[in-house]
Amino acid sequence: MFASAGFLVKLHALADQHLEPVAVYKPKTPAASKITDLTWCHDNTYIALLQDDTFPQIISTKDRTNIELVHTIQALQKVSAIRFKQNTKRTMCLGNVEGEAILYDTKNRSILKKLGELDSSIRTVDFNSIDEQLAISTDKSLNIFTDRDSENNFVKISNYSQKCSYVKFHPNLPNILGLAFDNGTVTLKDIETGENMISLEKHSAPITGIHFTTNQKTIITTGLDKKICIYDYVSGECVFCMNIHQSVTSSDISLDDICIAAGLDDGCISLYDIRDPLKPFMYTNAHNCPVNKVSFEKSPVFIEHLREKHSETTLMDSDFGDQSYAGQDLYEVENDPEEKFKQDIMKLIKTNMDNLEAQLNEHCTKFQNFIMSEFDSIQSAMNRWDVFNMGDSTEIVQALNSVGSKSVKTAFSKKSNGNS
Q1: How far is CA 94 from CA 32, 38, 113, 168, 358, in A?
Q2: Displacement of CA 375 from its chain's centroid (Å)
Q3: For the chain, what is the total number of helices (H) and then of strands (E)?
Q4: What is the mean pLDDT of residues 108-123?
Q5: What pLDDT sits at residue 343?
Q6: How far apart are CA 19 and CA 12, in angstroms?
Q7: pTM summary value
Q8: Of 192, 190, 189, nearest to 200 (Cα)?
Q9: d(CA 211, CA 129)
Q10: Is the Cβ–Cβ distance between 252 and 38 less than 8 Å?
Q11: How far is CA 137 from CA 47, 99, 130, 145, in A?
Q12: How far apart are CA 290 and CA 5, in angstroms?
């Protein structure tokens, strides 16, 4: 399941051969105001969305057939960036065009903490995997806010000549941050040491997505230059780069590290298999405007149920205010979630097996073609040298000219002069 945003928010499910529409949410604010950002909470029950020229909104997605507005955040004016914490729905970060950043308490509907005023408009914000550090990029700088029991402060990493267009923490390495600039360069930074690890320079326009696979092997970037690039995480080497027909305005990768969803400037969404990204396996016209945001939901709730995990910071509908409906979690209505989990695992195994079989067939075909080409070359060479057994000097000279070897011609010339 993933969400996409233009003037509307749409939820999509991945079916076998197509995208299945699940729900549509139309903001009650003016329809001409585009949605610029959205963020899922940790258990997929709420989405916070940001719309031009209005306050951020929180909508309930507990009942996917009945998405409703539950709260409008009015604690900060001119908000330009929003993000839920990774492991709770209780707290989120808001930043605005005037450089103000706050932590917001969604349960008490109040400002939890003012983080200060930065040097310019805030462009993106992101929490690391353990919610102890918050990266905030402005037009001019990267700022890290540390929120631990032992320390609580801002550390400005650096000022930059280029505008910081995007920041993204690694999903399970809390100190690794991807930082992108408007000129298309991407820097992988260790925020604990301040060291720049690698630099990626395949793009020539602003970056619209930086994504890491959880296995720590791959980095994916997308940009307005119509490129999707895949890099080796350790070396930074670009192992795949693809130009497509439209600018990629937003992107995300699925929880299983298999699917890339790319929102395009023409309102379409393309989905690619990271293991074989040459062409999209799904493509749909989703919006009548640029797709400003695509975002996969967080870890499926039914997996948490199977592991008997419970949220330590749950937020009921009553925490947002009285509701006119009793929403149910999508995964809770499944008759047998354990059986569904097994089926999903089997589908994943089958997909991987099919992919391996296709790769093996491809390599066998290439090897067979190579062997046939080598045999053809050997046969051609043998046909040229058979002429020496005939003793016709004219044909021998023609064969030597076709070979084009100076050393062979010289050797034959010496042999001829010796015989004369």
Answers
A1: 23, 12, 11, 16, 46
A2: 45
A3: 5, 28
A4: 91
A5: 66
A6: 6
A7: 0.70
A8: 189
A9: 14
A10: no
A11: 22, 10, 19, 11
A12: 9
